[in-house]
Amino acid sequence: MRRYSIKLITQMRRFVIGQAKNLIDQTRRQHHHHKNLRLLSLLPPFSAASDSTTLVSSSRLLSSSSEMSASDSSSSLPVTLDSINPKYARLKIMIHDLVKRRASFRFFAIVIFVVLGGSQVLKCEYAVRGEIVNIAQRLQEELKTNKDAYPFDEIIYCNIGNPQSLGQQPITFFREVLALCSHTALLDESATHGLFSSDSIERAWKILDQIPGKATGAYSHSQGIKGLRDAIAAGIEARDGYPADPNDIFMTDGASPGVHMMMQLLISSEKDGILCPIPQYPLYSASIALHGGTLVPYYLDEASGWGLEISELKKQLEEARSKGITVRALAVINPGNPTGQVLAEENQRDIVEFCKKEGLVLLADEVYQENVYVPDKKFYSFKKIARSMGYGEKDVSLVSFQSISKGYYGECGKRGGYMEVTGFTSDVREQIYKVASVNLCSNISGQILASLVMSPPKPGDDSYDSYIAEKEGILSSLAKRAKTLEEALNKLEGITCNRAEGAMYLFPCINLPKKAIAAAEDAKTAPDAFYCKRLLNATGIVVVPGSGFRQVPGTWHFRCTILPQEDKIPAIVNRLTEFHKSFMDEFRD
Amino acid sequence: MALDYDALNENVKKCQYAVRGELYLRASELQKEGKKIIFTNVGNPHALGQKPLTFPRQVVALCQAPFLLDDPNVGMLFPADAIARAKHYLSLTSGGLGAYSDSRGLPGVRKEVAEFIERRDGYPSDPELIFLTDGASKGVMQILNCVIRGERDGILVPVPQYPLYSATISLLGGSLVPYYLDESENWGLDVNNLRQSVAQARSQGISVRAMVIINPGNPTGQCLSEANLREILRFCYNEKLVLLGDEVYQQNIYQDERPFISAKKVLMDMGSPFSKEVQLVSFHTVSKGYWGECGQRGGYFEMTNIPPRVVEEIYKVASIALSPNVSAQIFMGLMVSPPKPGDISYDQFARESKGILESLRRRAKIMTDGFNSCKNVVCNFTEGAMYSFPQIRLPPGALQAAKQAGKVPDVFYCLKLLEATGISTVPGSGFGQKEGVFHLRTTILPAEEEMPEIMDSFKKFNDEFMTQYENNFGYSRM
Question: Which residues, by range, are in coiled-coil regions (chain A) (predicted)?
Fold first, then answer.
């Protein structure tokens, strides 16, 4: 697929915005939500008057939102929708922008869904907002009572990066160690030797010895238990071939709190900008909005396999600067989410050089570092790249995020992760420590697991063979699933799909016929959401519309995980193929 | 440098967090040098030797390694009720401990929490208004983030207070509006004082939006009476404040005159219009009580009279963080539905929990009495929570020496104490105190058998300190 010229994009934008205006006017007339939305952005930031007005009656509080009129903004309750932090509201205003641009969202709630609910986070959990997930759950309930209600037996959730919820088994060795650390009395029982591998027992002892008082129920150092950080630093060193310092490691409850912490430090106002890829994982847009900063987008080039071009970075940086925005950092997701590309080493060097030259903090989201599926690509950490270029502590400011939720381990529910922070002065480091300490520490079993994934069993250990078999089994199966799904998608009329070189997702581009776009407009839905809803209703397959991740205006995508178990993939391919064919038959121009 | 100190968010620089501040860092240094340090700076019971309760650890271990449940020998290591409970909790998840849960927490656990609140208060509780969090701190941050829009939004916070509140308010760029607890009334909360604080804040253009109470108190250890809670709720009603009830120490009560009573129960007892209009968010945790499972990071908050659309916004922001960690959610489930009489594990569970609470009660007394036997030290009795907060009456000589050392006087005293005895405390200035009055906070958590020795070594240090600085300057302030 060709890269769109700027001119073409501009034309598309104009077209879409024109359509948008009509639609928004229509929808505003129809839905009070929009009135409120508009009000939110017009409200004075602060109303001292609200303190002196009288209380509204309790029945008003209980009225459903659809009955609420715009005048609710004058409510004198201490916490009402209109008086909560406008940064929350900004999440919506950002969404409002989307509405303007895309034009065709019916409900405010749908829009929130695509921005937030569409993320892997939210799928089944974010049912309230995600219209597509809502529908999915409703269908699932109906299927329980009436197996023949739909032409499919089950809902297949391809919307969320939550592997164990789809049947992926945890790595046995990791869980053995965690169980022993959870109930340390087991270590004194002889029966334990019959039930646990010998190296898991040894490892549990080793870990307990690193915890002061062997107390797994105690708060730890705010950066995480020192001995576990030592193991992580050793793991990083083994991975990169360059030294890592345990004092640079900040352990966090999943990778997300680390991202929030850095945004908190970097962003003082909307004048502070963060360069983020488009398409992007919505954590970044949401976190920037919550902290009141400005997202400076850079577009990944779909035609070159979602390549990251330095010329694009430069262009966007200059444009932002010309608007008076101080760009503080560049976020890079490698391997990419939702785009699945693995950056080439040469490309990474250019990125490091760019950050150094422009004085940007490099925020490297490297949570999919174990998820690489193609022989011609390899994961290199940005730290390794920077060091290999001869850049040390004084040259580049780099934060690398890692999580135990991804990889072959997929331990989302544990909330474990870390960030490795290099190239900051000690006074800045102290500030990071202080922010970390307000939350005391991250959860200990997440910390233990993070140390385990960075120092798994070694050849000769009792568990080594089974560990390797489990790991390879999961990774090779993911690679097969990625390949099968990619090939199937590319066979479909009007669909082009870059290969998933890494991560857990495919992000195909759908060239929707004009008739389908018109039908979506009639249904007041974004064209990609329209497609995804049709897909769900026909097949039970749940995917996320591309608008949730943002995309080049006028292009349409969806994100589909490669996580359903392998035996389900052929059925998914069949259903998808059949659906797409009939969809095209219905709407082909 | 891409990010130098000057370019940092000012709110971050302003934020202070004493519990892990200068004293803690110095103590850690001394520990590295091989000195024996008694950490009484953080309410972290397991770090000081408190053993975890057996039953919940058994259940969570089984959930961590569910393959054990299929092993015919599992019964050799685990009692049947732990096995049954592990199966129960795993059935509430979508993929065991390894899958993200609903962003508000597992629905099944939230239901158990609601049932617990209902049993405790005698009023219904709605699981939809309960959010599980990674520790209570995360919940407090979420709610304050929702309330604070800018520096003109004020939050009423008790002084002395737990620094989570001051730190979070400054990180979020809001204004802390202090109200002073009355030390001479055993840290009582005087509503007239509250009114004054609010009036003063308003005269400065601050819109006071919420009020924090910590009950039982941290660092002050007092238990609020029902009458006092009524006054507070009435005040919140009149002034239209959201009440944030930090009730994490509700199991930690060391006297019989004032049992814990939740703000929610008092509010419901007050009836209409209060019960229908006062907005309340209550916080709880697995880190305190006789559980002390700090390292799990488990907690919840319950919202009362918060409009559905605001609840949705809070949900939205919670979902950006994906989900609270699942094993701590299970700890929370176990805490609110512990073994019952007749269960195999009941006797052991009851014995362990009673043992911890009774020992804490004795330690509270040893500590208060110990402080009150020291020269120039007066200390209210620890009615609840986990802390002792003695007032240290520093002689002018000590104030002057502190000034010369460039230290706040109580920091000066606490550093000297640390160097001399290895006891790591938190200076009162980290919690806020009236000007010219100095305190320190210790936990009552050191092992009971070590307590007399600790108090002896404290007394020896203190009395020598006082003598030194009184003698050098010839008179005492007292």
Answer: 468-495
